[in-house]
Amino acid sequence: MTTNAQDAIVLLGDSITQDGWSPYGFAQRLANAYVRKLDVINRGMSGYNTDWIIPVFEQCFAKQHDQQHLPKIRLMTIWLGANDAALPPSGQHVPLDRYAANLAHLAHLVSDPSSPYHAPHTKLLLITPPPINTHQWRVTLRQGEPPKELDRKFEVTAEYAERVRTVGRELGVPVVDVWTRVWDAAGHVEERLSEYLYDGLHLNEHGYALVYEEIIKAISENYPELHYEKLQPVFKLWDQINPQNPGPDLQKRDIFAA
């Protein structure tokens, strides 16, 4: 980011975050809602778990001594767990306790004043993994080359979602409960999750619509000052510009200034 860029929302996660840039994804929806107000930066890494995302964070997030020279990250979402919940001996598997510790570590990197990455202006949202449709995912795996056996269980992924809720409560970080929202929408019937997952693991248009709604709800309830309707554009709208003397009206402004 350059010094002329807008402040930003950063999305940290795995393939479900990376796919958020799809035409129907939640990242695309956020970028549209916050256009001209906050940039949306996608740092979703397909296949990654919480062990592997920490070094990514440390290379993508500015340290304290650099933050003053860069646009501020106003909101960061942390959305992992779908891969951590893979069953051993999968290389993606991260044991439940270490998964929780990793989530807490990521949050502390931003919120702890002793952290080199401390950013008091950055608000955090933790997001639970969505439920998995093992019936659908088994078919997806068997269609691969080579075919693979089922590497995830519904009840195991549910435990990882619950651990996100626990970490959020312990740290006082709001949690976007995608698991519950999608599970409720499917009527608590695993097979019906195919209405919201295109392959049993990854969200489709309808699933991402629910995610977007839940994120906006969480922002509204926990960080109302960051809701897109509360923010003015960084550069004035065209009908607010004085045609006879446009210069003063075309200066970038700090939309969070008191």
From TrEMBL:
Gene3D superfamilies: SGNH hydrolase. GO terms for molecular function: hydrolase activity. Pfam families: Lipase_GDSL_2. It comes from the Eukaryota. Residues 11-210 form the SGNH hydrolase-type esterase domain. Keywords: Hydrolase. Coiled coil: none annotated. PANTHER family: ISOAMYL ACETATE-HYDROLYZING ESTERASE 1, ISOAMYL ACETATE-HYDROLYZING ESTERASE 1 HOMOLOG. This is SGNH hydrolase-type esterase domain-containing protein. It comes from Rhodofomes roseus.
